[in-house]
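tokens incoming
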């Protein structure tokens, strides 16, 4: 005759006893010679807690601004010689300023140390980098940022370099990033995440978090705020200099436009 087990597994190795069995064992335990003996009162509460706890309920994951520590993903750079040759020959390599913007973009060739430096920090598993651009933002944005970091450094007798962190910022592109790679063209709409930042830098007025602009230490965190373009599935992420006087613990939020200066644009797909 088949017997019914009195236990079930939670999937995490903990054995949960069914209520009747818990009740019975609460008052009786097995002695060293195998015979049932009364369980002392002081042991009952301990036994009950050990055997009758239900597994924690599973709560759905809701995308929110990340404040919890994120485990850094292993760095996988899809930059084989074959892929590098493909990306370098597939697009504009001369510096250009897309129509409707005042920012100059320079394609970084995959053979350059700068490409290796950026790509090696881009630790998103299975990401295929299609292009990395170095950015020369309009002078008024650069000047405001430079003045702000001088001021913040001066307050704590530090240096502008020490109070500036290079962080990731993922965004959504309304226009096809492939047009930027191949033709140097963008839609130029400030409501397009790609174009808005290219035109005017990071702006609190474009924040999706009540005026706060979020930046992350790890690209994997910022990847959660990118969206694949509907046609080409390409995603866009900026590397931004952010004035932040203390150490960065995974993410930084600022509500000052001039605390930020976009430095690189990475176009990739997963
Ligand atoms: Zn656009």
């Amino acid at each position: 005759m088949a017997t019914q087990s009195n236990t079930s597994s939670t999937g995490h190795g903990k054995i949960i006893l069914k209520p009747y069995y818990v009740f019975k064992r609460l008052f009786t335990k097995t002695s060293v010679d195998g015979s049932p003996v009364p369980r002392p009162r002081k042991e009952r509460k301990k036994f009950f807690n050990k055997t009758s706890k239900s597994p924690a309920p599973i709560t759905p994951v809701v995308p929110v601004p990340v404040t919890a520590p994120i485990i850094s993903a292993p760095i996988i750079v899809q930059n084989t010689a074959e892929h590098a040759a493909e990306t370098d020959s597939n697009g504009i390599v001369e510096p250009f300023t897309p129509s409707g913007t005042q920012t100059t973009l320079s394609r970084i060739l995959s053979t350059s140390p700068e490409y290796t430096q950026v790509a090696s920090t881009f630790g998103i598993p299975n990401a295929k980098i299609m292009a990395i651009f170095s950015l020369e933002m309009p002078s008024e944005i650069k000047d405001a940022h430079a003045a702000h970091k001088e001021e913040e450094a001066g307050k704590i007798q530090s240096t502008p370099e020490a109070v500036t962190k290079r962080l990731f910022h993922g965004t959504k592109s309304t226009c096809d990033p492939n047009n930027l790679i191949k033709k140097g063209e963008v839609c130029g709409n400030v409501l397009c995440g790609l174009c808005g930042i290219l035109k005017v830098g990071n702006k609190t007025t474009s924040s999706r978090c009540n005026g706060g602009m979020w930046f992350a230490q790890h690209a994997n965190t910022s990847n959660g705020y990118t969206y694949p373009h509907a046609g080409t599935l390409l995603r866009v992420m900026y590397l931004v200099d952010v004035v932040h006087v203390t150490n960065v613990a995974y993410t930084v939020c600022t509500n000052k436009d001039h605390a930020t200066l976009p430095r690189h644009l990475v176009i990739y797909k997963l």
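note: The pocket of zinc ion is lined by residues 173-175, 186-187, 189, 192, 194-195 (CB under 6 Å).
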